[in-house]
Design goal:
The structure holds two protein chains of two kinds. By secondary structure, chain A is of the alpha+beta class. Chain A contains 28 helices and 26 strands. The two termini of chain A are 54 Å apart. Classes of the chains: A alpha+beta, B alpha+beta.
Chain lengths: 922, 112
């Protein structure tokens, strides 16, 4: 269509009245001219005018035809369709309410899950030109690594970042940020101190805000001047949320001071509302310069060049903005060369083997427009699964509504037939019925959008635990709205198609005469396939898959939460102390720890206290190569073991059974010969045929080789997650440590006689007595830790279970509807049967059989779907096979129960049919 | 008024052709077009008034003529139509088609 036509149609739409007036004027002019002409022959003016009008013919028809030529019909018709659809909905408010509610639930669930997917997987960082950003580090990892690992780097060190920033050719700017945001108490320095709730702090390079292209809405961002000197720039940029919550949105926030740990910072800027840093889900509250590191992590120096290149503190995410015209491949090549040169420069004095290994470090350059996130790894697949689940529920809901609409359109046969008789064409009817469906879906979608927002809040709360809060920004933006609109439209077309098609096939004569027995959805006898039954079969198939999937997840989660961890999880609690960060000197720490342990042990009801350097269920682990004295390590064998340093009586306190030898005790503390305890897997791996007790092993750490004598073997236990596979693991005494990493703090583990949660305050007070400078400790029982680690699995199990149930309810309603309709259509037949002597039970079985047949067909179609679905989710299942017969059998049994339930009322009604009434009914 | 037996029924396409040709001489309102056709054809062709205006609007919609409100010779407001560039082209095309058609019919009729 050309522009001229468009403008004509648009004008026609908006200036319809004026155009009608103009048309009228034009036609009237013609008639008047004709009248004038007639007056030459006919002197009577009135007669002349009358003749003119007669000759012109029907003005109304001409007007109508002219209007049609304008070609606005389609838009006008759409508008009138809409008005009619609204009227129809108002006439049956009950149906409208049910349909809209069903749709709102279905569409709302889809919107909610999609919002999360959008935020975690799809959307770009709210920065300038995000496509120009790349990561030089690993955006899927969070953490802090000390030591050496070859291959692609997860993080870089501060000196490496500085070098990259100075020497790079391909980036217009580089930034570095501390990847994990620690919760540090932050106090507002106002007149009323005591406002010192913890906040998330992130350390960033001076270039951070300028490279990202983010401008603070208040004040300014600090720039590269803060990188010049250490500990000299106590300035901070705060997040929008922090400003609103802690400062109450005060307009004079710039220049005010906050205290982070022991240092006072000046607030120089407030970040824009939608900006949450470079890591999705982290949401720092405060950004401070990297050069202030020793104030934020006191007692450690993570900024200087390390003495030992194999013992680097890698803790920074690095991003760069590509110079215009530079491609990702070019940047990768350039950085590869530069990084290699940097590593090469550090290999002085290394052996050939070490050098080769050391040079096997690389920086992978990957697109950075989506930011960094560990959420993708954790939640990526579960989110996809949930999306499919809610999509299926929506489909099932659509089938129900389609069935109801089919039934309604059958009831409207008379009205439609009259319309056809008056001249409505097939396409016109089709469009009108479809409009009703789309209107329904649109209203359902709007309500669903609201529901989706509430659902998101609940969802976030479901997956956050106190220790690992997921902070996502889930405001509805244009993507979400477009998605909801699209889904609503699709839904409306989907369930509106069948009734609309139905409306165009009408047997005019029989309907108008009232002899029609055409009943939508059950016309099996009159030939043709009954659409209602097909829909129900599809519903059964879909919900069977949903049920089985839900059953699998629920069972998997049960398996996980009941897994034996290897230690006594019902009587343990754990908390972390980090004296070094709170002003204690390294030499004071062993004594401090011992004092804490003694005091806790003295509490009545406590059965023991010990500690471990890498807390249980924390994800923190040490991993080093191990050799056994007298054993030659075979080349290519991965002779690594995980290890931890533990306090005395660790195994008896935690309840890990000792299989051979003894455990680590007080006598093993000090500087004497170091002992160690290994676990079963390590014993099997390194000592398949001999007794490990008494043998000497060597741990190869970056600070050298440390020996220990094996004095015991303990049972395997799960250190960090219920899903963990057994790895070789050993334990050495905390108080005769390897290396000096124990200054990084330790986790105290307490065993109680009764419920551990009742000891929290007692333990807190003795810790306070022993170490007054430590902040209030966050304590969790081991069961709490376990359930925190299973948060994703619980979420999937709960949600899929809930949706599975919802699907079952929907199918039940749908099946009931179809059966009720089918039965009412068979009243005649049933009457005849009863008259001929059929028993009541026979009638019951007749109806029931039909329903069960539908379920059977649906289940048969559904079973292959189930297997396909099972294979897809198998990576998330624990302790059971996807083709789990129990889950499948349960689901099928449930479907049959539904079949019986749904047809119960119609079947009973069928048995009560009075043959005389039925036979007289037409 | 009894229908004039000499008035021929015009096909829709032919009416379009006549209107376009009439407008080639200059802008006119609907009444003038009808009168002009009647006049030039010496009263043989009398345009059915009921089809004239739908035809005019259709041609306008197709972009072959454009319309403007102006003042008629008697001082009244009237809608004046005129040919567009594409209208001129269309007129030529239709005229050629019409001669082809009439030649063909004439040949058939002359056939012995």
């Amino acid at each position: 269509m050309r522009w001229k036509d468009y403008s004509l149609r648009l004008r026609a739409l908006f200036f319809r009245r004026r155009m009608d007036e103009e048309l009228h004027e034009e036609l009237q002019f013609h008639i008047d001219m004709q009248a004038r002409k007639n007056q030459r022959n006919e002197s009577n003016t009135i007669e002349a005018k009358r003749q003119a009008r007669l000759e012109f013919g029907s003005v109304v028809r001409t007007t109508e035809e002219c209007r049609e030529e304008r070609g606005i019909s389609s838009i006008e018709i759409a508008a009138s369709d809409l008005r009619f659809a609204l009227r129809m909905l108002r006439k049956s408010p009950g149906f409208a309410a049910v349909a809209i509610l069903t749709l709102a639930l279905g569409i709302g669930a889809n919107t909610a899950i999609f919002s999360v997917i959008n935020s975690v997987l799809l959307s770009n960082l709210p920065v300038r030109n995000p496509q120009q950003l790349v990561f030089l580090t690993n955006p899927d990892e969070q953490g802090f690594e000390i030591g050496f690992g070859d291959g692609d780097r997860d993080f870089v060190t501060y000196p490496e970042f500085q070098q990259l920033e100075r020497n790079n050719q391909v980036f217009s700017g580089l930034l570095a940020a501390s990847n994990f945001t620690s919760r540090i108490p932050v106090e507002l320095q106002t007149s009323d101190s005591g406002n010192n709730a913890p906040a998330h702090v992130s350390l960033i390079s001076g270039s951070y805000f300028s490279v990202l292209g983010v401008t603070p809405i208040l004040g300014r961002a600090f720039g590269t001047e803060v990188d010049k000197l250490r500990d000299a720039n106590p300035v901070a940029v705060i997040s929008y949320a922090f400003w609103r919550e802690r400062f109450g949105g005060a307009s004079d926030v710039i220049g005010r001071r906050i205290r982070v740990l022991n240092t006072s910072y000046e607030v120089v800027g407030v970040a824009p509302p939608r900006f949450h840093g470079e890591t999705v889900g982290a949401n720092p509250d405060i950004w401070v310069p990297l050069t202030m590191q020793s104030e934020s992590f006191p007692g450690h120096d993570y900024l200087s060049q390390e003495a030992n290149p194999f013992r680097k503190a890698e803790w920074l995410q690095a991003m760069g903005r590509l110079k215009p015209g530079i491609t990702l491949a070019q940047a990768k090549a350039s950085i590869e060369v530069e990084f290699h040169q940097m590593m090469e420069a550090q290999t002085g004095g290394m052996s050939a083997r070490d050098k080769r290994q050391f040079l096997n470090q690389h920086l992978a350059v990957t697109p950075g427009s989506h930011g960094a996130s560990t959420l993708r790894g954790d939640f990526g697949k579960p989110l996809q699964i949930l999306m499919v689940v809610v999509g299926l529920v929506l489909l099932i809901a659509c089938a129900n509504i389609a069935n109801i609409l089919l039934a309604r359109s059958a009831a409207r046969q008379k009205e439609i037939s009259i319309r056809v008789a008056l001249g409505a064409g097939g396409p016109r009817l089709f469009r009108q019925v479809l409009t009703e469906s789309i209107l329904l879906a649109a209203i359902g979608g709007a309500v669903g959008l609201l529901l989706g927002r509430w659902a998101d809040v609940a969802l976030l709360r479901m997956v956050s635990s106190t220790s690992n809060q997921v902070r996502l920004d889930l405001h509805p933006d244009s993507t979400i709205l477009a998605f909801t609109l699209g889904v609503s439209l699709l839904t409306g077309i989907l369930f509106g198609l069948a009734p609309a098609l139905q409306a165009t096939h009408v047997d005019l004569n029989s309907v108008l005469k009232g002899t029609s027995r055409s009943v939508a959805g059950t016309t099996a006898r009159s030939g043709g396939v009954p659409s209602g039954k097909i829909l129900v079969i599809a519903q059964v198939a879909l919900s069977l898959s949903l049920l089985v999937v839900a059953g699998l997840f629920v069972r998997s989660f049960r398996n996980l939460s009941e897994t034996q961890l290897g230690y006594d999880r019902d009587h343990l609690l754990e908390f972390f102390v980090d004296p070094l960060s709170y002003g204690y000197h390294p030499t004071e720490i062993p004594a401090l720890d011992q004092s804490i342990l003694l005091r806790i042990d003295a509490i009545p009801g406590v059965a023991g206290a010990t500690l471990i350097d890498n807390p249980l269920m924390s994800g923190r682990d040490s991993n080093s190569p191990v050799t056994i004295e007298g054993q030659k390590p075979s080349p290519g064998d991965d002779a690594h073991a995980r290890w931890a340093m533990v306090g005395p009586n660790f195994f008896s306190t935690t309840g890990i059974p000792i299989l051979e030898g003894r455990e680590i005790t007080d006598g093993d503390s000090g500087n004497g010969q170091r002992v160690g305890v290994i676990n079963q897997t390590m014993a099997r791996k390194f000592f398949p045929h001999s007794n490990p007790v008494g043998q000497r092993a060597f741990v190869h750490t970056t600070s050298g080789q440390a020996p220990f004598i094996i004095v015991g073997v303990v049972q395997d236990s799960k250190q960090h997650s219920a899903k963990e596979k057994a790895l070789p693991r050993f334990y050495v005494p905390y108080f005769n440590p390897i290396g000096n990493d124990w200054t990084a703090g330790a986790a105290i583990i307490v065993r109680t006689a009764g419920d551990p949660s009742s000891f929290l305050s007692a333990i807190r007070s003795v810790v306070k007595q022993a170490a007054p400078n430590l902040p209030t400790v966050a304590m969790e029982t081991m069961n709490q830790r376990l359930s925190d680690s299973l948060v994703t699995d619980r979420m999937i199990a709960d949600l899929s279970g809930a949706f599975g149930m919802l699907a079952v309810v929907l199918v039940c309603i749908g099946l009931y509807g179809v059966m009720a309709y089918a039965t009412s259509g068979r009243t005649n037949e049933i009457g005849i049967r009863i008259a001929l002597g059929a028993q009541r039970s026979g009638i019951l079985w007749l109806i029931l059989r039909e329903s069960l047949l539908l379920v059977l067909i649906g289940a048969a179609i559904g079973v292959p779907l189930v297997f396909a679905a099972g294979k897809w989710i198998s990576s998330l299942l624990f302790g059971l096979q996807p083709a789990d017969p129990v889950a499948l059998a349960f689901a099928i049994a449930l479907m049959f129960v539904i079949g019986v339930l749904a047809s119960y009322i119609p079947a009973r009604r069928a048995t009560r049919v009075d043959p005389m009434v039925a036979l007289r009914q037409e | 008024m009894a229908p004039d037996s000499s008035r021929l029924d015009l096909l829709q396409g032919t009416l379009d052709l006549l209107i376009l040709r009439a407008l080639r001489s200059g802008a006119m309102h609907g009444w003038a077009v009808s009168e002009r056709i009647q006049q030039i054809s010496q009263d043989v062709l009398r345009v059915n008034q009921g089809s004239l205006y739908p035809a005019l609007h259709r041609l306008e919609h197709r972009g072959w003529i454009k319309a403007e409100w102006g003042v008629s010779e008697l001082g009244r407001r009237a809608r004046f139509y005129s040919l567009t560039v594409s209208g001129r082209k269309q007129l030529e095309i239709e005229a050629v088609n019409w001669s082809k058609l009439t030649d063909a019919i004439a040949r058939v009729l002359r056939m012995a």
